[in-house]
Structure formats: C-alpha cells, structure tokens
Amino acid sequence: MTVPVAPSRPNASLAALLPFPAADTNKYRRGHLSLVAGSAAYPGAACLAADGATRAGAGYTEVFCAGKALLTVRGHRPSLVARDWRAWHPGRPSRGGNGDHPRACVIGCGFDTAEGGATAGLLMETLRAWEAPLLVDGGALGLLASPTGLRLAAERAAKGRPLLLTPHGGEAARLAAAASLAPDRDAPALAAALARAYGATVALKGPRTYIADTRGNVEVMDRGTAALAKAGTGDVLAGIIGALLAQGLSPVDAAALGCALHAEAGRAAEAALSALCVTADDLADFLPAAVRALAAPAAADAHGQ
Ligand SMILES: NC(=O)C1=CN([C@@H]2O[C@H](COP(=O)(O)OP(=O)(O)OC[C@H]3O[C@@H](n4cnc5c(N)ncnc54)[C@H](O)[C@@H]3O)[C@@H](O)[C@H]2O)[C@@H](O)CC1
Ligand SMILES: Nc1ncnc2c1ncn2[C@@H]1O[C@H](COP(=O)(O)OP(=O)(O)O)[C@@H](O)[C@H]1O
C-alpha cells in the first residue's frame, strides 16, 4: 500500500512560520508549555525536552515530573519551573484565557512504562481533560496504544481538540497493533493510517520523517543526519514541537517546522562536532544556527527553491 507524499517544504515557507515575538508581548502571551515528563528512571528526558522547548521560543516552560526527578530538573536550568506531577491538573482552566495566554502540553518524554498506574493515569486524564493542543511522545505512546487510549483519542478528535503523536518505528508498531492495522505498510502509509486511527497528526520519525495530518495528507522531512541517531534526540524534538504548538502553530505546521529545525540543528552540530560526537545534549545549543539557516535569505539552497 502506498500513499502520495509531498516533498519537504521550502525554506521560505518554513521561515514564514517562525514565531518571532511581537515587541509588546510577555512571557505568557508568547506561549505556555506544560511538559509532563521525566520519571524517576528517566529524568534526563524531561531536561532534554525542556531544552528544546525553551530554545524554540516558549515563553513559559513548566515541567511536571516524578517527585524523584525534581532535583535533577530543577538543577538543570535555572529558568525552568519544575513541579511534582501530582500537581498536574489538566482540567483546570488556564490563567488569562486561551486567546491571551496560548498553551500546549507535551506528555510522555521519559515515561517509564514500569511505573504503570501513575503515568497511565496522567496520560488518560490529560487526553480526557486538556483542551489545548496535546503532543504525546516517548513512553506515553505505549500507554496510548490501548483500547482506553484509542477511545480517548477518538473523543478528543470528536471535540476538535488537537492531538499530535511523535512515534519512532518501535512506538508506531505498538500504536498500529493496538488499532489492528496491518503491519505490512511502508512508513508514509503507516503514518497516514495512524493519523486516521487516532484522529491525530502523526510525525513518524526515522532517517526520513513522515508527517501525516487527519485528512490523509502526508509530507516528508528528509533534512536530517545520522548524527541524530543517539538517545534523547527525540525528547529534544518533542520539546521543540511543543513550544511551537504553544506559540500558536497548527499541529501539522508545528511538526513540519519543528522537524526541520531539529534536522538543521543536527546538521549544524555535526559541522561543529562531527557526526560521531554529536549528543542530544548539544542539539538545543545549535537551534539558533538552525533558525538562521531557515530565516536567512541566503539559505535558498536546494530546499529553499
Ligand atoms: N536521557 C533520558 O532520560 C532518555 C530517556 N528516554 C526515554 O526512554 C523511554 C523509552 O524509550 P525508548 O525509545 O528507549 O524505548 P522503547 O521501548 O519505547 O522503544 C525501543 C524499542 O523499539 C524498537 N524500535 C523499533 N524501531 C525503532 C526505531 N525506529 N527507533 C527506536 N527504536 C525502535 C527497538 O528495537 C526497541 O526494542 C521513553 O520514555 C523515552 O522518552 C529516551 O528518549 C532516551 C534518553
Ligand atoms: N539515521 C538518521 N538520520 C536522520 N535522522 C535520524 C536518524 N536516526 C534517528 N533520527 C532522528 O533522531 C530522532 C530520534 O528520536 P527517538 O527515536 O524518539 O529517540 P529518543 O527516544 O532516544 O529520544 C528522530 O527525530 C529521528 O528522526
């Protein structure tokens, strides 16, 4: 089974989506990202996602993590606001209302499925009650791959509440099995089928990343580098895309721009550090170079025509 795939967007279209701040903005108006991430086993994933989010422009990044991860997250960056995830209440209305105070939530980076009940409860309650855009990543994708997850995803779609999934190949296989999708699909067809089954925008990650929307459109992002094939780079990507959602981009635009920025940051890191030595910890520091690569008029390379 094959589906038509649109090519990577040109630089000019991506650059037009960059959410540079207005002169009279404030930290809340710029976008408030709630990052429900970081178990006792994987506190680093919350730190990596928060690095991506803050560098990608979120005005306020708030991490809700396991109690045992709090010290690690608080010590990672002074600008991060870190709270115990028992204080996460997805049904509470946001301060300032939606228009003046745009919000998004990323859930699942560093969720440890062995933690079972606690993380499953966080995901299911967030699917049910969180009205603003929601990105599900990492260990939460394994929890979503269940009859309850499928039902809550369908209920979100029926209410028009945006959902975005960022699986790697292993996580996509679990999501497909839970939705009884035949396994013999190529990556673009799998992304499209998952988008339909979960009523979500899907960025199926890999050497090429396929972004499928809920109407059956699929586009590829093929600017990456094998330097990105290291633990934790996906957590940084989730934070970047979450920050773009919080700044008002639609799920498909946030995925397209976020994946392109992540890939450009990987290439800039590779140029400085070599493909061997790049780590996920480096990526956020190369996001400024990625922004410049997309935004500069001189960046009209093969992707920019
Ligand atoms: N520093 C940290 O704290 C890190 C935490 N992480 C977290 O660790 C948790 C588990 O994530 P993992 O991805 O390690 O484990 P998973 O168990 O979710 O997935 C890995 C399994 O999927 C299979 N697989 C198939 N196709 C794959 C593909 N294209 N890419 C990767 N794996 C593929 C692998 O063979 C492996 O068996 C997540 O919550 C994640 O966010 C990881 O992101 C690594 C870094
Ligand atoms: N060979 C490759 N070429 C380009 N990009 C890659 C390659 N391998 C992995 N990536 C990218 O690296 C990231 C890995 O994400 P993921 O598998 O979720 O890692 P983790 O769970 O460790 O954070 C994805 O954005 C993926 O597209």
Question: Please, could you describe this protein's structure?
Answer:
(6S)-NADPHX binds at residues 45, 110, 168, 235. Belongs to the NnrD/CARKD family. This protein is α/β, with parallel strands linked by helices and 305 residues long. The protein has 13 helices and 9 strands. It has helices at 11-15, 43-55, 70-76, 97-100, 117-129, 139-144, 147-158, 169-178, 187-198, 233-246, 251-273, 280-283, 287-295, and strands spanning 32-36, 60-65, 81-84, 103-107, 134-136, 163-165, 201-204, 209-212, 218-221. A 9-stranded mixed beta sheet has the order 3-2-1-4-5-6-7-8-9, sandwiched between helices. Strand 4, helix 5 and strand 5 form a beta-alpha-beta unit. The longest helix has 23 residues, at 251-273. The chain is globular and about 45 Å long.
Name the CATH superfamily classification: Ribokinase
Shape: globular
Task: Using the CA coordinates, give the radius of gyration.
Answer: 18 Å
The secondary-structure element order is HEHEHEHEHEHHEHHEEEHHHH
- Proportion of strand residues: 5-15%
Give the spatial strand order of the biggest sheet. Answer: 3-2-1-4-5-6-7-8-9
Give the fraction of residues assigned to helices: 40-55%
Distance between the termini: 30 Å
Number of separate strands: 9
Poorly predicted regions are none
User: Residue-averaged pLDDT, rounded?
Assistant: 93
